[in-house]
Amino acid sequence: MIIDTHCHLDDTQFADDLDEVVLRASKGGVKGIVIPGADLHDLERAQTLAHRYEHIFFAAGVHPYHHDQYDETVLRRFLEDEKCIAIGECGLDYFRLPEEAEAMVQEKERQKEIFRCHVRLAKELQKPLIVHIRDANDDSKRILLEEDAGVIGGILHCYNASKHLLDLADHGFYFGIGGVLTFKNAKSLVEVLPLIPKDKLLIETDAPYLTPVPFRGQRNEPFYTRLVAEKMAEVLEMSVTDIHDLTTKNALFLFKALEKIKFDTI
Question: Is the sign of the CA dihedral 163, 230, 182, 159 positive or negative?
Fold first, then answer.
């Protein structure tokens, strides 16, 4: 059994065959899926999907690229839903910053401000965070520690293999491992993976993006979590079954609401 802790099923790439995608994943052992919120305009669709399928849940948040959308009143409305089990994805992304110096500083400061808002909301509502970090390790870690985010914890989505972030495991954070692990240029992640405490490992796809080998370049989907599990088993010298059991146990511990799923009926 596998739980895909980060899957954008609300993406338009799944509009034509969503039922088939969900069924294929279920038959392949994916018994739980979390749709992360990234854009306020997509939250209603994520919510609808979560209520259509018993084993699908969603999170509400604003991706750092869309920080200008942040509206706490709107977020709270979705966060009241019992199937909304996390806050995010949120965080910092410095990959595409303005070239002009002053604009760059303003963009970074605004992202940091909105990230802090997400963390404080998560602590207030007691829902874990789904954290996006790209080219912003130092600032992201500083905010998580300064805001005492460890009291609620969460996931470092698409963990970027930075050893600098590893000690966040001691502050309640889990590490989302996805298709990148199977890429030929994933040497750093392969080397760091054994350093992550096993009770902090999670599986994700980030579908429809970051499709694992040998399907890289095609649309990703939750069925491909099996390929991530197989690569994790190889790197960690464990059985695939043990990887399934371990990551599922970790996901259930982080997301208590997932325990309500009647797995034997899916």
Answer: negative
